[in-house]
Amino acid sequence: MKLRQWQSECIELALKQYLDGYSHFLTLATPGAGKTLMASELANQLLTKGLVDLVICFSPSSIVSQDFSESLQLKTQERFDGLIGAKGRSLTYQNLQFLNDDFWRLFTRYRVFVIFDEIHHCAGSNIDNANAWGEQIILNIQDKAKYTLALTGTPWRSDAAPIVLSNYLHPSNKISCDYVYGLSEAITDDVCRVPQIIAIDNNNISVVDDEETKIFTSFKCLLSQSVIPYQEIIENEKVIKYVISSAHEKLNTIRVANPDAAGLIVASSVEHARQISSLMKACFNEDSVVVTYRENEPTSIIQRFRHSQNKWIISVGMISEGTNIPRLQICCHLTNIKTEMHFRQILGRILRMTDSKNQEAIMYMPAEPKLLEYAYRVKQDVPFEADVVKFEKITNPIEEDIDDEVSGTVTFDNKKTPLPKVELKINGFESVIDHSDSDESTAAVDDHFLTSSYEKVVNIFGRFQQESIALGLSELR
């Protein structure tokens, strides 16, 4: 496979720094840009030039570890199974704490090149502030490996701890990267798709408790008063139905051009995933693949889905960073994890460019304020000429039986009972889709646009509304 320009540049710079006496190199490349291929080619060149003897790779999940092993084997034409005669091994970070002294002695007997995929999982500038994985790296790899390569698409941690092996700039305290390839460059180079983010809201929400009924005009207003936790919103059956109905309709449209296009739904728990799968079957007669940490062979499930024609896969903690399923073009953010790192990693699953005719990439999510902030920051990362914001009021029925309620009110029953019942009533599934586009990309956008005005776009009583953060459309192509 021919290297992309950024991959060639990054490899050339890394080799130069290694030969100049620097042992560590940190690459920041946007999710979906092709970090695995770049790292594999760099490893191949180090082996071919006789600069290293072995290559060890650490990554955050078994599926990514397997992908790295296959990529390294393909590039080097060597085995990476860790057995006699192999040129190395691909492991997960979880393995770090269980490697014995015989393994660590490899670093004193051989010149070892170590690849750290998604290095932000490993924290610590020293033993005192390190997490378990960072501690093992500091004790056994730092200053012992011949060369190290750290890869990340999201170079920060939600706990603000320092990333292991990294340097930080003062006074900004931003991480210092040796090579940076952002989303803007990736879109311009046709390496990544232009994302579009759909934020779904409702403007008439009722919360009923023992004493009174409170009315809220958006999820933002509801959550700001801590009346209902976000978990109840994403687990509410009517919310799920609306999100997956919109996503399912869009996926079917894409599959007219790309018959193998697929969608990912990220759920908050195993029970939540099963609930979504049941609703997908009940509403659309559509089977979905469910993969969670409870499965015996989750890696095999993901691999089969990757090469199948199935439309939907629902994941709990198994498909986020690094997982390569290029046919994914739709994703639904229905998890209760609301960190920017996780948000961007989920979005990255649908950004990998393919040879298919349709290259749309759309994320659906509830209009939760933090998620909207992250969406706006993604918007700032794309090329200015692709900066188009579009608003949609979608009231199209996906299936006639999705909702037969008359009222347009979203009602949460918050009465003090042992098992409170949460009820959501939706009206407004009509046959017309009304589009209202903003000005062209030259229009100024206020810094707080998404978080301050998303619920004011369409004032239709009790109907779900969608905000499409169109981060560049077909004009870019």
Key features of this structure:
alpha/beta, 15 helices, 20% strand, globular
What does this structure look like?
The chain is α/β, with parallel strands linked by helices and about 475 residues long. Helix content is about 30%, strand content about 20%. A nine-stranded mixed beta sheet has the order 11-12-10-13-14-7-18-15-17, with helices on both faces. Strands 3-2-4-5-1-6 form a six-stranded parallel beta sheet. A three-stranded mixed beta sheet has the order 9-8-16. A hairpin with a 4-residue loop joins strand 8 (about 205-210) and strand 9 (about 215). The longest helix is centred in the middle third of the chain and has 21 residues, at about 235-255. The chain is globular. It starts with a helix and ends in a 7-residue tail after the last strand.
From the spread of the alpha carbons, the general shape counts as globular
Taking pLDDT < 50 over at least 5 consecutive residues as the criterion, the unreliable ranges are: 386-408, 417-461, 470-477
Profile the largest sheet. 9 strands, mixed
Please state roughly what percent of the residues sit in beta strands, choosing from under 5%, 5-15%, 15-25%, 25-35%, 35-45% or over 45%.
15-25%
Overall mean pLDDT: 83
Query: What is the number of helices?
Result: 15
Question: What's the helical proportion of residues?
Answer: 25-40%
Euclidean distance between termini CA atoms: 23 Å
Strand order of the largest sheet: 11-12-10-13-14-7-18-15-17
Structural class, from helix and strand content? alpha/beta
* Radius of gyration from the alpha-carbon trace, in angstroms: 24 Å
Please give the number of β-strands: 18
